[in-house]
Amino acid sequence: MLIDDLAKRPGRWLTQEGPRSDVVISSRIRLARNLENHRFLSRADDSERRHIYRALADAVMECVLGEEALLVSMEETTVLDRQLLVERHLVSRQHAEAEGCRGVAISADESRAVMINEEDHLRLQCLSSGLQLDELWTEINQLDDALEQRVRFAFHEQYGYLTACPTNVGTGIRVSVMLHLPALKLTNEIDKVLRAARDMKLAVRGLFGEGTDAIGDFFQISNQTTLGRSEAEIIEDFGCRVIPKIVDYELAARKSLAQNQPYQLDDRIWRAHGILSNARTIGTEESLFLLSHIRLGIQMGRLKEVSIETANELFLFVQRAHLQKKNSAAMEGEQRSIARAELLRDCLNPSSR
Amino acid sequence: MLIDDLAKRPGRWLTQEGPRSDVVISSRIRLARNLENHRFLSRADDSERRHIYRALADAVMECVLGEEALLVSMEETTVLDRQLLVERHLVSRQHAEAEGCRGVAISADESRAVMINEEDHLRLQCLSSGLQLDELWTEINQLDDALEQRVRFAFHEQYGYLTACPTNVGTGIRVSVMLHLPALKLTNEIDKVLRAARDMKLAVRGLFGEGTDAIGDFFQISNQTTLGRSEAEIIEDFGCRVIPKIVDYELAARKSLAQNQPYQLDDRIWRAHGILSNARTIGTEESLFLLSHIRLGIQMGRLKEVSIETANELFLFVQRAHLQKKNSAAMEGEQRSIARAELLRDCLNPSSR
């Protein structure tokens, strides 16, 4: 697999329809691990960094990712390709923008991605459509075991897995889901719900994780606790209690909109459709904001002209690196806005296909 | 003709394409006249008012308006019908909202309308498509002569025709044109142009004349001078010098937009089309604002999916009284917004016709 292949289609987690995917876009579990007998990266010199990279890249490619996996050395990759990986949620922004020997290994279907030399030596991520935390936990647990056959991770009997940042010490686990909450936004209940989530020590972030704003009504919610509780407890609490509750709030808000303000609801949905299928120049944020309303319309059965696959794909393909990859050209902001509008018109106007 | 017939179709001046109608929607000349030997209305009692009304209504219907003309007694007319007359530019807002014996007589094609007992005893108006002031002047002059065969107007050898407000004394003429200046608005040159017009002692008003704001980039420009110059001079100056200059500015702005910002221009035009053909609830002002961009697109040959007739009709039919007439029901604001959106979708989506 080549990195250019990525840009041509969405990853499996985005094309499938997992449980509760009317609200839960995707589930993600990641584990933070560090090699025993090596310094944390903040203290490692260039040579040690390269040593860690090689050791982990080999182990990961053999034990974790299967055939046709892709190993990307971030040092040797263009800015555009690194941006592409961020847009696909395969690396963090920090990892894309950092310096030094570092990389990411990606399975062909993008359901598994392993960042090497990000904040920790290893960040192992499993991604799936909808709310599927138990399945992900089984999967990532097996991968972790397989890796431990090959390498030894820094582990302390009392504290658990040791990590560069104390917030990850213990299980090294972070469980997160990407939620689509447009109705809570429209009914102005979103702040209340997010405040409640924060009160439960959950982190609420935007579309691209740490330090990013919520765009297009997408919210990434993740657990903050890694110490003092088992992985199973964390996943049980998060996946069976907290997230279903938020999902129910969103569905109640959708129902309330449909009952009490059907015209205003359809107006939002159809104006979004009208603008996206007619604009001649449009930015990323506005596109995502309007696509969010289109997705809401599809999920509520009020917009049948667009398939959920098309909407999901567009969330990826309107983004700047994807656009440039598709057009095989570096483009300035204005050119991108024009190309983005063209793409949207092509995909949303059935007659012009 | 009945008043309900009006609501079914636009007047002739709106369906025809007069000279320079890419920028000049319509031309209008009106004359203010008062009967000799009668008090001005501010001093006339109810009985004198009725006497004036009857005398003028008879004269006007016989001499001025031809067959199938309509005489509307404003006292005996519903609020909705009075609003309809305002929306069609057949009476002023003031006349619609006033009290006492008053009326309007309208020719079948709406090119002539005579308000009785507005500010003056008689306000005679001729309306045509595009820029046609000479033709209008010939026409209104003949009507004035015909009326003077029947009634005697208050006239002073030195001052000319006497009127209730000193600003109308002399010729009693007001010449005005309705201009569509969307490109000057988009290029931010509109204020400069309107300031220049005001410096030339011209009045600049909105879509419904005195005291109304410009909506949808429509500006009514009229002469302020009635004293000390002949009608022919006023019309010559206004129609052959001032207005063509503003028209040229607008056309230059359109050309500049097409050359320098074609995508931004098309974006305005097509977003307007996208919103109007998809919205589920929409107010009058937003509709007129967006229809203005659609009209620009049609006139510039950039939007071929909508005919100029459809656009022109919609400018009338989206307004509140027209909407209610069409739906044969009194409607609250929210209902109107929903019905307006339905009308726009019906007219702008060829497939759904």
In short:
The structure is a homodimer of 353-residue chains. Chain A is of the alpha+beta class and 353 residues long.
Q: How would you describe this protein?
A:
The structure is a homodimer of 353-residue chains. The first copy, chain A, has 353 residues and is α+β, with helices and mostly antiparallel strands. The first copy, chain A, folds into two domains: 3-253, Glutamine synthetase/guanido kinase, catalytic domain (Creatine Kinase, Chain A, domain 2), CATH 3.30.590; 262-352, Four Helix Bundle (Hemerythrin (Met), subunit A). Helices cover 47% and strands 15% of the residues of chain A. Chain A has 14 helices and ten strands. In chain A, helix 4 packs across helix 13 and helix 9 (231-260) crosses helix 10. The longest helix of chain A has 30 residues, at 231-260. The mean pLDDT of chain A is 91. Chain A binds chain B through residues 263-264, 266-267, 270-271, 273-282, 334, 338, 341, and chain B through 263-264, 266-267, 270-271, 273-282, 334, 338, 341.
DSSP helix fraction of chain A: 40-55%
**Biggest interface pair, counts:** A-B, 19 and 19 residues
Strand order of the largest sheet of chain A: 2-3-4-5-1-8-10-9
The total strand number of chain A stands at 10
Low-confidence spans of chain A: pLDDT under 50, at least 5 residues? none
Q: Which CATH-level-2 architecture of the largest domain in chain A? A: 2-Layer Sandwich
Shape of chain A: globular
Given helix and strand content, the structural type of chain A is alpha+beta
Q: Any idea of the CATH topology of the largest domain in chain A?
A: Creatine Kinase, Chain A, domain 2
